[in-house]
Amino acid sequence: MSETEFLRLSDDIFRRIENALDDAGLDVDCVISGNVLEIEFEDGGKVVVNRHVPNQELWIAAKSGGFPFACRDGQWIASRDGAEFGATLSQGVSTAAGEAFRFSV
Q1: pTM for the whole thing?
Q2: Within a domain: 104
């Protein structure tokens, strides 16, 4: 995939995450700044989604750790354990928010 396509895809994912958080009605602040989407919770906890352009990866950072994802056959899959991006983000946000949240790519 070209760098332009990666940026377009990751921009779309950032927007979809922001919209999903709004639709879920979670009390969070969501800020996109450059290559980083930061979700901040009432208690000060954070989940961060970062795009690493040179490697064409998306990273999720949460209390449970940092998780890199690469696009394989149209799905964002973790290089470490094969987990899916949406499931990992859903778990991280649900844990931090204390409420169920679901996101799928």
Answers
A1: 0.92
A2: no
